[in-house]
Amino acid sequence: MVKVEQLSKYFGQFKAVERLSFEVSPGEVLGFLGPNGAGKSTTMKMITGFISPTSGSVSVGGHDVGHDPVKAKALMGYLPEGAPAYADMTPAQFLRFAASIRKLGNAANARIEEVVDQLMLNDVLHKPIDTLSKGFKRRVGIAQAILHDPKVLILDEPTDGLDPMQKHEVRSLITNLAADKTVIVSTHILEEVNAVCSRAIIIANGQLVADAQPGELEAQSEYHGAVTLKLSGNVDPRADLEALPAVFRVETYPDDARRVTAIPNADTHLYADIQALAKQKQWDVEEMFAERGRLEDVFRRLVDSHSRQPTPAGGAA
């Protein structure tokens, strides 16, 4: 449904995005990750046709965004970073305006009512947008993005500014919408990827550095197969754990002296060995689990290996 081919964007001599290529199919939720200045928002703006690429192309539903923008944009819903809206309008007025732009006609009232319920906007529907909290402004932005029931949904930092409950609600909404849509979520919140994404792309220095399912990325972490252990009492298990042949190192937690994590050597398994050790030493185990890996660890390693020079003023986001 979305095809990005050799996409590049230069601002003068500054390379914001360089030869970026990927495809996203219906039913996928793609997490688009990268540090600040990596080119995430610039890429979102090129996909949605807000800015033109220096080279390369984007097609949505078979329509080239550069050559056939009206048909391509009709298939898309877009939540820009910051969720901009007309501050003096109420959400009701803003959504009616969006419905008229999208030419929803007789279906407008029903669709507005539906998205207002989905985003729980009833309590603020007739208050000026300028007076709303950051979280409600974000919800209004998501409402306008899904108002015309688009086939492709582009969300730039959709849960930014939301409290934990609101984040959960928006993530559930994204998951439900993905059943019949192509969804791209640009985010710097790694937990968002595990929560809603079926696939993740990591970019750094404007270039693609990873494209895999979240679980596949986690498996690249040195914490893949690590075992976290919490014991009762004042027992310090570090020396016994470090003596195990399969243990690479043991990490402690400054805020919890009774918790440790044993990190395995490559291609080894720890859980059974530590379970046997705990039984032998008669440790009183409060908690013990094997980790799938840490996405943050992989993200940091990949980004560090493709570090970029500081972004100049007015550069990419």
| SSE succession | EEEHEEHEHHHEHEHEEHEHEEHEH
* CATH fold topology of the largest domain: Rossmann fold
Name the CATH superfamily classification of the largest domain: P-loop containing nucleotide triphosphate hydrolases
Sheet having the most strands: 6 strands, mixed
Number of extended strands: 14
CATH architecture of the largest domain: 3-Layer(aba) Sandwich
Number of helices: 11
Our Rg estimate from Cα atoms comes to 23 Å
Please tag this protein with its features:
single chain; 317 residues; alpha/beta; Rossmann fold; Alpha-Beta Plaits; six-stranded mixed beta sheet; four-stranded antiparallel beta sheet; 11 helices; 14 strands; globular; disordered C terminus
Task: Chart the SSEs and their pairings.
Layout: E1 2-11, E2 14-24, E3 29-33, H1 40-47, E4 55-60, E5 63-64, H2 69-74, E6 76-79, H3 91-101, H4 108-118, H5 134-146, E7 152-156, H6 164-177, E8 182-187, H7 190-196, E9 199-204, E10 207-212, H8 214-218, E11 227-231, H9 238-242, E12 247-253, E13 256-264, H10 271-281, E14 285-290, H11 295-305
Helix pairs in contact: 4-5
